[in-house]
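Dear Dr. L.,

I hope this message finds you well. Following up on our conversation about the binding site, I have prepared a predicted three-dimensional model of the protein together with 0O2. For your records, I am including the exact sequence and ligand specification that went into the calculation, followed by the structure tokens. Please feel free to forward this to your student if that is useful.
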Amino acid sequence: LQERFEIDEFEKLKRDLIKYNCALAEVLTQLNNINSYFNAYWEANPIEHIKSRIKAPESIAGKLKKKGLPVTAESAEAALKDIAGVRIICSYAKNIYEIVEILRKQHNFKIVKEKDYISEAKASGYRSYHLILEVDLGELFDNQVCPVELQIRTSAMDFWATLEHKVRYKYGGDMPVHLSEELQNCAQQIHALDERMYLIHELVDLINEGEDEND
Ligand code: 0O2
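The resulting structure of the complex is given below.
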């Protein structure tokens, strides 16, 4: 029970979560617009799908506890940047960088932090591109800004991360060495597969371009 919020802190957090919902809605509108733009103007839409979530109060409490911070609404707001989270799943790693460049040009939010775990994977084998976006909530919320975490990864990276997260959660952060080694091994194979699939995709594009020129 210690890990949970006291009742009045929980009520404060529930009220604060409205801000995160508004910020998330703003980001999702923009991402849906980008998705429609890709559908209309790009030959193939690089976005496969977009998922979003607001972190559950239990997970917020657990993360604060893990960081050794007080389990209060105030410390959640100060310390956690991933209360509102969005994930974009795309086809190839190259698409991730294309999407990031488009995001830089948006005016509804600004990018305040970036971590590229695509070009250099984490020790676990994890690959993904992380951004913290800051959304201005406007006068209704006294011009406060609210963070939204955005993770962009390929389907293959997502497949791996979902399983690894499940295994890590099962062992409460104390994963047996043989499992973490096997997961690192799978991460390397998935990375190699991602690259080979991309080469096939590029090759087919080149063949198509050649055929178009000959028409
Ligand atoms: P959950 O349960 O997904 O929310 P910070 O979040 O900034 O305090 P950190 O860990 O340096 O600290 O941030 P980082 O590296 O950007 O990671 C944030 C999130 O990325 C994690 O959130 C995970 O969702 C994901 N992530 C990072 N590393 C791994 C990994 O090795 N495996 C998997 N499956 N996911 C990872 P949470 O809150 O840790 O977890």
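In brief: Residues 116 and 129 are 5 Å apart (CA to CA).

With kind regards,
A. P.
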